[in-house]
Specification:
Rossmann fold; six-stranded parallel β-sheet; 32 helices; 28 strands
Length: 845
């Protein structure tokens, strides 16, 4: 999962955006008090540390809150061991003593974090210490001899409250002090057995006092199962249920090749049931199990070395998403699970879930026979269900698609809305509170937030996941333009995707699935041209995508300004509206398609005519580089120089620190990297495929160098013959890409065709990776050969790699610093978006 922004960093950036233009005579603290809501998410940090579903929720909430203007959020974690009663009492005390008055809203989700005291405390409950609640060992006593506790010096009224579970007349500090003092006097006393009746009563009463209705403003739970558990909430209180999304990125459908399950390997997850069922089912596809835990050794014995069962251990997020994608279905059969993110992640990967009637949380998401199968928790029933799913792949696919459609409705924005609405609204600095506690608002401040104009953008493919240069540009540029506009995309999408998804604050995309008629027209055109034609099909056959036209029509009616990103969406806009538009060019398309469509001159002519029309009709045209701007001016005779402006490609400099040499060496040592590593990144785009061929040729000449290729270009290369020193990484998560950028010795950019500029060069330069590039590959970015990168043309690319590796370290460092400075000066999305936004605002007047 992508690491969340730290709370103070996001708060600082938000503050800069809001405070821009404030004069020295204004009182900045008062403005912040008025316009910012400060939120603390308070949570325990497990000892020993592990990452699970709780962390997924906290990181997701933190990122979602900090993406909103006017909110500053932080995640406060306190180490909370639970190996003895003494450690538990100490953890409760640490939380109870936190001073969080500088926050407007505090959210806790898990014991013992709800021991905090705050005027605006929302409990969004994941689970209590389950071993003392619903998982308390059957047969173990729940009653104790009160005399034993009196003998330890615990006051009689507290002993009575423990025995009778009375929270109403107790103060948390008094209860905690009494228990802690008794523990300190006699830590070896038998009554402190954990679990045991006294520890059960003590922790449950601490929770009850901490969550008493006079202490909490709102109660919520992550599932109906959690909301209904005995003792979790005070009697009679209203508990809202908010199912939360997952933070796992890159979930998508894929081939149906395996059975796959993922969870912590402990007995409550009942992986042994699945192993036995698989062995009985006779299913001939492998069963892959991700995760680690205390039950692993026993589970391996249960599997008895079965050749089809594979224990994967704990896997990175990118690998986890790939495993989901390859599955036919995801069996998940825990006993009384709180919620079960595995269920949700399987659904978002369009995989049916196989679960059981007593699994708890998964039953709230899965519909029997529609998005999965729900059977009795026994081996025979599970084996039969596995056979049924694995022998009817079309049915499995259909169930997975139903599940994905349902899971798509869960998003972080809605969860944030619910939790914000639940808390009391903060009192502004110039408001007052009357004796009854009602807020009386002061006169409106001179600083007010105006509604942002709506910028509608039309495109022919989804933005997320961000796995190609075009998507990097769309996400990087428009997420920053959203500081000034409400940016709303309407994007044509594969048939299995639909709905609106929020990409960042005031930045969303509506996905409109391709119709069957469109898919057929696209396939026919692709067969003719022998290349990807999604964009050209959209331009030639917009009438075959009526849902897309309807969405564009609605966007054109509500937006203040329309942008056609690429020229291919313009015919669809013109089919429903005569609105003026901005043409945002990623390339000179007529030149780009020459390399892609080859001998099919008629198709190139179609693109040229389309691009000419877009340039001439647009109110404003943007180009990625000065060279592209000049080329379009020559091709299409643009008379007004002010109409055609440069909006270059960029990178988020603030989020891309320069790598440190010592850290790089440590990572290489940890991974036992001994050979030089050369990295090439690219999507399955014609110019990148051409460049990949040059990488393979260079690798054959440099056997002592290891070459790594990253991105969807690897899908094309699977069938190629390639040397042993060439590795294919495929599409990876942002975190994994950052790791490779941190440990490689050089970045490769052997691009010899295409148009626009190459974002990979900016990514290499930003992190401090020395670069070998063709002159064409560095076009339009102002990079100087010999100063910012090593120049190597296609016929001598291996020699260029060798030349860089032979450079003295001081020379490499100088080149890295030069390239980084150039990115900071000319390639930061923040600055680029300001220029672009200003041009758009000028059109609006």
């Amino acid at each position: 999962m992508k690491p969340p922004k730290r709370g103070f960093v996001a708060a600082k950036l938000t503050g800069q955006r809001i405070s821009r233009g404030i004069t020295s005579s204004m009182r900045l603290p008062n403005l912040f008090d008025r316009f910012f809501m400060r939120i603390a998410i308070v949570a325990p940090s497990p000892v020993p540390f592990v990452i699970g579903g709780a962390e997924n929720l906290w990181w997701g909430l933190l990122e979602a809150f900090n993406a909103r203007p006017g909110i500053q959020a932080d995640l406060l974690k306190v180490p909370s061991p639970e190996r003895s009663m003494g450690e538990l009492l100490a953890s409760y005390r640490h939380f109870s003593e936190l001073d969080l008055d500088h926050f407007d809203l505090v959210i806790s989700t898990k014991y013992p974090a709800w021991a905090i005291r705050h005027r605006n405390h929302v409990v969004y409950l994941q689970h209590t210490l389950r071993g003392l609640y619903d998982c308390y060992p059957p047969g173990m006593p729940t009653h104790f001899d009160q005399g034993d506790l009196l003998a330890l010096g615990i006051p009689a009224r507290i002993v009575s409250a423990l025995a009778n579970y009375r929270a109403a007349d107790l103060e948390f500090k008094d209860l905690l002090d009494a228990l802690d003092a008794a523990w300190q006097r006699s830590p070896q006393a038998s009554c402190w057995a954990f679990p045991g009746p006294v520890t059960r009563a003590a922790i449950r009463l601490l929770d009850a006092v901490a969550m008493r209705p006079d202490k909490i403003v709102h109660y919520a739970a992550i599932s109906r199962v959690v909301a209904a558990r005995e003792g979790y909430f005070p009697p009679g209180v209203k508990v809202a249920v908010h199912h939360h999304p997952t933070g796992l990125k890159g979930l998508a459908s894929g081939p149906q090749q395996t059975l796959f399950s993922a969870s912590r390997l402990d007995q409550a997850k009942r992986i042994d049931l699945l192993i036995k069922a698989y062995m009985q089912s006779g299913v001939d596809m492998p069963f892959r199990i991700a995760g680690s835990g205390p039950d692993e050794a026993r589970l391996r014995e249960v599997a008895a070395g079965h050749s089809g069962i594979h224990f994967l251990g704990r896997v990175p997020d990118a690998v986890l998403a790939q495993e989901y994608a390859r599955a036919v279905c995801v069996p998940f059969v825990p006993r009384d699970e709180d919620y079960g993110l595995i269920t949700l992640e399987a659904m978002l990967s369009a995989k049916p879930v196989l679960t059981t009637t007593d699994s708890g949380g998964p039953l709230e998401l899965i519909e029997h026979e529609r998005s999965g199968l729900i059977v009795e928790p026994d081996v025979a029933a599970l084996a039969g269900a596995m056979r049924r799913i694995c022998t009817d792949l079309p049915r499995a696919l259909k169930m997975g698609q139903v599940g994905r459609a349902r899971a798509a409705h869960l998003d972080w924005g809605s969860l944030c809305d619910a939790l914000l609405a639940a808390g009391r609204q903060p009192v502004a600095a110039n408001d007052s509170v009357n004796a009854a506690g009602a807020v009386r608002q002061a006169a409106p401040s001179v600083v007010t937030r105006q509604a942002k104009p709506i910028l509608g953008v039309i495109n022919t493919f989804p933005i997320a996941p961000v796995v190609s240069g075009g998507k990097l540009r769309l996400h990087g540029l428009y997420s920053r333009v959203a500081d000034q506009f409400q940016v709303q995309f309407v994007n044509l999408a594969p048939s299995h995707l639909s709905g609106v998804r929020r990409l960042a604050t005031d930045f969303s995309e509506e996905l409109v699935p391709k119709s069957q008629a469109f898919a057929e027209a696209e396939q026919q055109l692709e067969d003719t041209l022998g290349a990807s034609v999604e964009d050209l099909a959209a331009a030639l056959h917009p009438d075959t995508a009526p849902q897309w036209l309807d969405a564009i029509d609605a966007l054109a009616r509500r937006a203040n300004l329309i942008v056609c990103s690429h020229p291919y969406s313009m015919p669809a806009l013109r089919a429903v509206s005569s609105r003026a538009f901005v043409y945002e060019a990623h390339n000179v398309e007529a030149d780009l398609k020459v390399d892609i469509y080859g001998p099919h001159r008629w198709a190139i002519d179609q693109v040229s005519e389309l691009e000419q029309r877009a340039v001439r009709e647009a109110s404003l045209v943007t180009a990625c580089s000065t060279k592209d701007r000049e080329r379009m001016t020559r091709l299409y005779g643009v008379a007004d120089d002010a109409k055609l402006v440069v909006v270059p490609n960029g990178i988020d400099v603030a989020a891309t620190p320069l790598r440190a040499a010592a850290q790089t060496q440590d990572r290489r040592s940890a991974l036992r990297v001994a050979h030089p590593l050369a990295l090439f990144m690219g999507s399955a785009h014609g110019p990148n495929i051409d460049a990949a061929r040059l990488v393979v040729e260079a690798a054959a000449q440099l056997p002592s160098v290891h070459f790594l290729l990253l991105g969807s270009v690897c899908n094309v290369m699977q069938a190629w013959e390639r040397p042993a020193n060439v590795g294919l990484l495929g599409v990876v998560s942002d975190a994994e890409k950052a790791t490779w950028l941190a440990i490689c010795d050089l970045g490769l950019n052997p691009v010899i065709s295409g148009s626009g500029t190459n974002l990979k060069l900016l990514e290499y330069a930003a992190v401090g990776l020395p670069v070998v590039s063709t002159e064409f590959g560095a076009r339009g970015l102002g990079y100087c050969a010999g100063q910012d990168y090593v120049l190597a043309e296609a016929h001598a690319f291996a020699q260029g790699i060798n030349a860089l590796l032979q450079l003295p370290q001081a020379e490499r460092d100088r080149m890295v610093r030069n390239a980084r400075r150039r990115v900071e000066t000319h390639g930061d999305w923040a600055a680029i978006a300001v220029t672009y936004s200003h041009a758009l605002m000028q059109i609006l007047g």
